[in-house]
């Protein structure tokens, strides 16, 4: 078991291999389809508008050496206006494949958390950056929420609760490296093995 604190260094990322179990600590940010599309269209491929510069700079600070979590949480707002996570399970990551490489490069991301893995373009970006893909446990949303110790703030709440960008502080958030910075992907290995077995069964 490895314990890593965000921001994560290049050296720590390069030291990770597929199959490594990790406990993440520090500040991470959730982001799904709407958030990735917004970052691409408003910051990465186009110049930020004057009223969006502050958010762009804040995300650059949070993501520099940081981690994005593909998650649509269930949240609770308290009487004092603060928030807490009730459930924080991962969502399927492959939907972000069209965006993820550019987001990784632009913001200097070191980690992407989700479930199901990602494709070849993200794997290449992980090699170039370097960065890794962390697989979180599907179906354990309430358990994972226990690792979320504080909701620091939320951005783009107008996207809706699941699609907003929640800035959270986590302690010992459990993940497994399934795509590393050396070009290895457990997801590719499983797909290749499955195709081989299918061919054997059909022969």
> Termini distance?
42 Å
Instruction: Please bin the fraction of helical residues.
Output: 25-40%
- Total helical elements: 7
- The succession of helices and strands, N to C, reads EHEHHEEEHEHEHEEH
Structural class: alpha/beta
What fold name stands as the CATH topology?
fumarase
CATH domain class name = Alpha Beta
What proportion of the residues form beta strands (DSSP E)? 25-35%
Largest sheet: 5 strands, mixed, barrel
Which stretches of 5+ consecutive residues score pLDDT under 50? none
Oligomer: single chain
CATH architecture annotation name: Alpha-Beta Barrel
Neighbour order of strands in the largest sheet = 2-3-6-7-9
Task: Estimate nothing, just give the exact number of structural domains.
Answer: 1
Note down, in words, how this protein is organized:
The longest helix has 17 residues, at 186-202. This protein has helices spanning 10-14, 33-44, 53-63, 100-107, 120-128, 141-145, 186-202, and strands spanning 2-5, 21-30, 67-69, 74-77, 83-87, 111-114, 132-135, 148-155, 165-179. By secondary structure, the chain is α/β, with parallel strands linked by helices. The protein has a five-stranded mixed β-barrel. Strands 4-5 form a two-stranded antiparallel ribbon. The protein has one domain: fumarase, CATH 3.20.130.
């Amino acid at each position: 078991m490895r314990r890593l604190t965000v921001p994560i260094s290049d050296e720590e990322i390069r030291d990770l291999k597929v199959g490594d179990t990790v406990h993440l600590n520090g500040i991470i940010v959730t982001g799904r389809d709407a958030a990735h599309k917004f970052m691409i269209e408003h910051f990465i491929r186009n110049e930020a508008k004057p009223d969006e510069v502050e958010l762009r700079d804040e995300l650059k600070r949070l993501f520099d050496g940081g981690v994005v979590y593909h998650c649509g949480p269930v949240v609770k707002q308290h009487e004092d206006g603060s928030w807490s996570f009730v459930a924080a399970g991962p969502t399927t990551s492959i939907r972000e494949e069209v965006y993820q490489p550019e987001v990784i490069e632009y913001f200097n991301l070191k980690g992407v958390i989700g479930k199901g893995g990602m494709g070849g373009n993200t794997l290449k970006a992980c090699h170039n950056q370097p960065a890794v893909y962390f697989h979180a446990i599907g179906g354990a949303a309430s358990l994972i929420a226990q690792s979320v110790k504080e909701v620091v703030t939320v951005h783009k709440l107008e996207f809706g609760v699941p699609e907003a960008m929640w800035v959270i502080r986590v302690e010992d958030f459990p993940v497994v490296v399934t795509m590393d910075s050396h070009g290895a992907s457990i997801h590719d290995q499983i797909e290749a093995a499955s195709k081989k077995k299918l061919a054997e069964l059909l022969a």
